[in-house]
Amino acid sequence: AQRVTQPEKLLSVFKGAPVELKCNYSYSGSPELFWYVQYSRQRLQLLLRHISRESIKGFTADLNKGETSFHLKKPFAQEEDSAMYYCALGPGSQGNLIFGKGTKLSVKP
Amino acid sequence: KAGVTQTPRYLIKTRGQQVTLSCSPISGHRSVSWYQQTPGQGLQFLFEYFSETQRNKGNFPGRFSGRQFSNSRSEMNVSTLELGDSALYLCASSDQSNTEAFFGQGTRLTVV
């Protein structure tokens, strides 16, 4: 079955601390992996995708096919990073993006 | 470029009624996907339209339907509303399926 699992519903860290949001997936074939972010009162937007291998707002994510993971990392969290983060996988069996249930990141001052 | 626009932003309907939601994609985008977002289930795929044809469909009952017009604007219809249909309905457009999806701000539907 094609599935995305984000084990943490809520992750709370202090400003300046490292942060890692976990994402594991189940997929047969070559997946495309994405991280989407939703700031308060804003629309869902793409943060990064594994094929571009870039760092956005200090966040990076590496696709580990052996562990079927695509964890999102940032070495020093900022308060403005507080948001909902969704890991997504494509293409699904219906050609769609499959989303995890999301992790709410709270960065405390 | 204007972003994805969804109307209306908020809706309150009673059980048994039907509702139509609208989505205007980014200019030039021919793929429009619809998702239901709830606190318990997260983002669930409803269907995707491409060039006026339903190309993909999620696991929702037939009460949920949609269509796409020649200008790529899409509508989603839910008939015989149930309390459990209360959710944020998100529309996303892309220039082809499985590349970056651009989301609208959603329509918050409340069924009472």
Structure, explained:
The complex is a heterodimer of chains A (109) and B (112). With 109 residues, chain A is mainly β. Helices cover 0% and strands 43% of the residues of chain A. Chain A has strands at residues 3-5, 10-14, 19-21, 24-26, 32-38, 45-49, 60-61, 72-74, 83-90, 98-99, 103-108. In chain A, strands 2, 5, 6, 9, 10 and 11 form a six-stranded mixed sheet that branches. A three-stranded antiparallel sheet of chain A has the order 3-8-7, with no helix packed on it. In chain A, strands 1-4 form a two-stranded antiparallel ribbon. With 112 residues, chain B is mainly β. Chain B is 0% helix and 54% strand. In chain B, the strands form two sheets. In chain B, strands 2, 4, 5, 6, 9, 10 and 11 form a seven-stranded mixed sheet that branches. Chain B has a four-stranded antiparallel sheet with strand order 1-3-8-7, with no helix packed on it. In chain B, strand 9 (87-94) and strand 10 form a beta hairpin. Chain B starts with a strand and ends with a strand. At the A-B interface, strand 5, strand 6 and strand 10 of A face strand 5, strand 6 and strand 10 of B.
